[in-house]
Amino acid sequence: MSKTALLTLGRLPKALELARALKGAGCRVVVAEPFGWHVCKPSTAVDRSVQVTAPNTNTQQYLDDLMRVISEERVDIVVPVSEEALHAARLKPFLPAHVSIFSPGQAQLLRFHDKLEFAHIASSYDLDVPETFFAGDPAAVALSQVYDHIIKPVHSCSGIGVEHRIKGTTLNISPAGPDCVVQAFVPGRHVSSFSVAHEGREIVTVLYEGTVFCGTVAVCFTRIDKLKPVNDWITRFIDRSGYSGFISFDFIVSDEGRAWAIECNPRATSGVHFLNNADLARAILQPSIGLPIRFKKTQSFQQSYTTLTEAYRHILRPREFLARMKHLFSARDAVWSTRDPMPFLLMTPMSWNILKPAMFSGISLGEAATRDIAWFGAGSKPRGAETGKVSQHGVSHDK
Questions:
Q1: What are the pLDDT digits (tens) for 199-218?
Q2: Contact 247/310 with Cβ under 8 angstroms?
Q3: N or C: which end of the chain has fewer CB within 10 A?
């Protein structure tokens, strides 16, 4: 008998990837999404799409809506997708006995999402992280005078509100803004990862890096070979934490080859596009089996509409324009499928709830896609932290 899988988001290409994987495994796929229109809605991989309250509009109503969908649709497994996972994981202790959730409990997710606490946890595992302090700590002031540094909200996502400052700059943090951390800047190569784990065992890890960006969000990304310092770091973290579910990290690999983790994203990211769909679905539905997950043959994926837009934005800079056009013609679109073409063909209208605020309210695509679902701290709401330069420490590969 086939299972019914509930995805708790449908607006992002990674949600569509998960829907197609689960559908290919014989699941009935239901999507719960605050937006009425989203990229998963016209997909043949989705059997039903249900509009729910956004967690940052009314968290309790959001959870009640999910529980109602679970009951009405006879859901067997809940699969959180992106930033909403930090809210959806709260359901774990309240789910019926026959319903599983592919996620840790909320407490562990929140600890890893917190930029300061994550640094403390990784350090306790004897893993490398840059020096990181709460902005109100005198140690943060001392660090800012000695090192170039990064300032970012404790609960930031999609690179929102991240600033790169040079050493000696006065550490001036607005008290009206979100709580922030100060982190020593580490020069080097920016590498992102995506892993699937079960009870502390790493099932698969893919490493990748962005090649074309829209603001802070990578819209074209390429899989890279294993980097031993990075892979060893991830394996140790998953083992020591006993983690289960999707987990992602951002690293800086120094010129000396040392891997420094700059933050943790305890959810799916764009790395999911590189995984074989049948193997991915099996890992979600039967994680205890622990069979390896193969990579797809495709080395590069993109969101081609946005890559094209970024190319035209640089049309007066021939070198940058040609570089982006090269990626446009060499990378595979993450949404396009000959068997399921409508999400790609209807991408613009289905993404209007993201495009509209980005076009007319002056916010980034990353913020427009996450401001109603991301975790900004208990009882808090997103605050516009769009000023400041974005450094490699604020680059996001997860849309």
A1: 999 999 999 999 988 876 78
A2: no
A3: N
Contact assessment for residue 180 and residue 213, using Cβ atoms and an 8 Å cutoff: no
What spatial distance separates the first Cα and last Cα of the chain, rounded to whole Å?
33
CA distances 158 to 21, 104, 330, Å, are 25, 22, 25
Token pair, residue 266, equals 């305890």
**Strand arrangement, sheet containing 28-33:** 48-51, 28-33, 4-7, 77-79, 100-101
Question: How far, in Å, CA of 245 to CA of 291, rounded?
Answer: 15
Helix (H, G, I), strand (E, B) or coil at 181: strand
CA proximity to 215, closest of 82, 382, 368, 353: 368
At residue 100, what are phi and psi to the nearest 5 degrees? -110, 165
Strands of the 180-184 sheet, one edge to the other: 132-134, 180-184, 149-153, 163-165
296 class by beta-carbon count within 10 Å (0-12 exposed, 13-18 middle, 19+ buried): middle
Find where tokens 């899989």 sit.
Answer: 223
What pLDDT is recorded for position 159? 74
For the packed helices 318-330 and 304-313, what is the interaxial angle rounded to 10 degrees? 170
Sheet harboring 300-302: ordered strands across?
Answer: 259-265, 245-253, 189-198, 201-214, 217-224, 300-302, 332-333
E strand or H helix that includes residue 319: helix 318-330
Asked if 7 and 265 touch (Cβ cutoff 8 Å), the reply is no
CA 199-31-57 angle, 5° bins: 95
What's residue 97's pLDDT?
96
Model pTM?
A: 0.91
Q: State how far the Cα of 84 lies from the Cα of 66, in Å rounded to an integer.
A: 12
Q: What mean pLDDT comes out for the span 35-55?
A: 98
Q: Give 80-108 pLDDT, tens digit per residue.
A: 999 999 999 999 999 999 999 999 999 99
